[in-house]
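Workshop exercise sheet. Pairs work together: one partner reads the sequence aloud, the other fills in the structure field after running the prediction. Swap roles for the next sheet.
Pair: D.N. / O.F.
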Amino acid sequence: MNAKELIKEMQSGKFFTVEFIKKDGTRRVMNCRTGVKKYTNGKGLSFNPIAKSLLPVFDVQKKDYRFINLSTIIWIQVSGVKYWVTDLVINESIDKINELNKTILK
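Structure field:
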């Protein structure tokens, strides 16, 4: 099972920790859960987040809702087990190596 499949199955409201890359390019580690209904206005969202590869979660530290881009997840930890999204880590490493090569070759 990969991390994306695991997090999609967690609609039961299970707590988990995830590291992902935010829209601004920085990394973030968040403790969160899915399926929280508290603090909502009952209207729901005006779009389907899963269709945009976004997972709506409740950030338990900030006590607010956030979206996690499923394509930028680095790892997910559930019940003490950490699941790595290896493709993203490999691609990120390749990008960093390419950037270093560009600066060295100048």
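Discussion prompt: Residues 3-105 form one domain. What would you look at next?
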